[in-house]
Amino acid sequence: xxxxxxxxxxxxxxxxxxxxxxxxxxxxxxxxxxxxxxxxxxxxxxxxxxxxxxxxxxxxxxxxxxxxxxxxxxxxxxxxxxxxxxxxxxxxxxxxxxxxxxxxxxxxxxxxxxxxxxxxxxxxxxxxxxxxxxxxxxxxxxxxxxxxxxxxxxxxxxxxxxxxxxxxxxxxxxxxxxxxxxxxxxxxxxxxxxxxxxxxxxxxxxxxxxxxxxxxxxxxxxxxxxxxxx
Length: 230
Description:
230 residues, 0% strand, transmembrane, membrane, UCP010219, single chain, transmembrane helix, mainly alpha, 10 helices
């Protein structure tokens, strides 16, 4: 579900407090999101060049997905992530071939963003905001951040940014274009709403996250545990 900028986007963190690094620096690079936008672009290009042939579009998408997967393995990406990405492209191609509708190549992407929006919203409601879960895993904190009421509240507020700015926007755009059968527009939207939108989401959620923390809070890497209200 996720898809991240290599350098800190402007505004991703406020300079307030000690030891506060940009959220983008914690989450990592944007290569995964950029790579994910290439097979859909190949599908649309192959579909157009071959006279709107879904078979040629599917072949182009799968071929490029394999090439991208090999390059990701060479640069040290986890094999599980590569296999999942390749399987998603193959699944999308098979759906389009089965239905005979080119726009259905993007159906998995649409449904996955619906599921992501619901999952992130539910995580906030049950007080396990997924942004906190992700950052906690990246920083090796496991669930210690949940013992810090300030961090729990900040992660909850920042997670709403992911719900609305990333997943809901994608659902609305992809859904309307899919319903209208706009294959080329779907391909363009798939690229525009990949790493550029992820970078914007990380920047805005980082700003919200740090604005929600008290001025004297030590930062994401240092949960204040053992306080009341946890």
